[in-house]
Amino acid sequence: MNAPDADFIIIGSGPAGVSAAFPLIAAGRRVLMLDAGDDAGSQEENRSVRVLGSDLESLRADDGSSPKLQTPVSRGILERFTRDAGISGDGFKPIGSLARGGLSNIWGAQVSYLDAGDIADWPIDLASLQGSYERVSQRIGISTNADFTTGANSEATLPLGATAADVLRRHKAAKPADGSFRLFAAANAILSEARPGRAACDLRGDCLYGCPSGAIYNSRQDLLALRKSPHFRLLDMQAVSLARDSGWTVKTADGSSFSAPRIILAAGVLGTAALLADLLPIGGKGLRLLNSPTLAIPLLSPARLLRSPTPTHSLAQLGLSLRYGDGASDYVTGAIYEIGSLPAQSFVNRMPLGRKAGRAAFELIAGSLLVATIYYPGDQSRSSIHRDAMAKKGLTIRGGFAEGFEIRAEALKKALRREWKRLGLIPLPGASLAEPGIDAHFAGTLPMGESGPFGTSPVGELNLHPGLYVVDGSILPDLSSKYITMTIMANADRIAHRLAAL
Ligand SMILES: Cc1cc2nc3c(=O)[nH]c(=O)nc-3n(C[C@H](O)[C@H](O)[C@H](O)COP(=O)(O)OP(=O)(O)OC[C@H]3O[C@@H](n4cnc5c(N)ncnc54)[C@H](O)[C@@H]3O)c2cc1C
Ligand code: SF4
């Protein structure tokens, strides 16, 4: 290896990559970050371009996926990944990004923290994550929703929408039908107070189309701070292969190569698998992939019929959880959204009415509509990554559900129906189980603490390849139903602190 280009090369500028970069540059380590995206973003575009798309792509037919995935910014990111990542799906929608900032350009920003029970099988304890959780929360800015009409107004709060506030009040007034049911105000990575370069949330509810003021956390924002350091360099280049000599060399799509003694992979679970495909013995059984089976349930609040929505953001208003079994991870986690500001056509198309009648009905009831999204833990999925037999390079992801999942899902829907009734909500027709992959909650391909060719050490170093570290969701040994990005970031921060000390 010639003189190394950096002490560490980080591949990926999403939430995981930037979280690994901060501790390293703070310790004076030279970091070169490679990202397949570039600086072109939607931040400066006017509202009509953000909503309709520069090629009016919003007017294309609804493809049945989540409204969040159909906005121009989402379509742009997902379509590039589909085109250029070399990953196809078989009963699985491979959601990923080749964009600066990764999927944080389009994420829902809801935040959860794992507890000791959630990580009981990990090779690390909660105490080793705690400091990282705190550092990351401080850096990205978290707000909890609160019902301002009841006087709650502590720091870092944003107002709950009136329909969500009504549901939460009903929950507090009557005991749940199932003792394990929890309903609480959601915590989101949205600013309630301005910071340099980011405005506070303006409550106009445009969130689905990319937050123009930067109130929603996006890891692009961190790149501005990182680039102020003389130890940090960012190049817009797509890594295509990794090779070991005395250190590691990364080759990029334009034919350049860069070397460092240690490489940190933060390309997202699917992107990292693609980069490692030639370095791992992926046989006929494929590489196990955990994802969260996801259910969406439209709900009507008759008490709020014909009442207008109140100003709030359109990310998660409420969070919920409910147990469905005795195992430590046998619980679902979910979120409740107000529908008022979401695109009408996504709902109209799913209503059992004609388009015209559907739109009229939607306008009448929009303020009283909610949607709940429910996530299962990763052990309810059966997905795996395979080398594409037809293409020389490339992967296919096969998606599926654990045996008996349908029965458990029906039982859960029944248990939820009792809670909806107690909360004064009517489930509407159109509840749907998403195609595996749409959840974008991925983990478990290269588990920390596992022996064997796919395992990694507690700091994410591949058993088979010393000097190659992984910091994204790939190394989480299991996938709880909780929102996962905060833990991915905290774990990347934890690992980078350890690497900075080597
Ligand atoms: C619609 C949607 C809503 C979501 N909502 C939530 C939520 O509410 N809460 C939550 O916790 N999570 C949510 N998520 C998931 C969240 O976005 C991901 O967990 C998170 O972005 C993962 O971060 P990452 O850095 O590991 O990967 P990514 O964000 O995918 O970033 C990967 C980076 O690697 C780069 N890259 C990939 N391959 C290469 C290569 N070969 N060479 C160079 N660079 C490369 C990409 O350009 C990108 O910058 C959501 C996701 C989606 C799609
Ligand atoms: S309402 Fe949504 S888009 Fe508008 S500033 Fe708040 S978070 Fe951003």
TrEMBL record:
Keywords: FAD, Flavoprotein, Oxidoreductase, Plasmid. Gene3D superfamilies: FAD/NAD(P)-binding domain. The keyword Oxidoreductase applies. SUPFAM superfamilies: FAD/NAD(P)-binding domain. GO terms for molecular function: oxidoreductase activity. Residues 7-289 form the FAD dependent oxidoreductase domain. Its cofactor is FAD. Residues 412-492 form the Glucose-methanol-choline oxidoreductase C-terminal domain. The keyword Oxidoreductase applies. Belongs to the GMC oxidoreductase family. This is FAD dependent oxidoreductase. It comes from Rhizobium leguminosarum bv. trifolii (strain WSM2304).
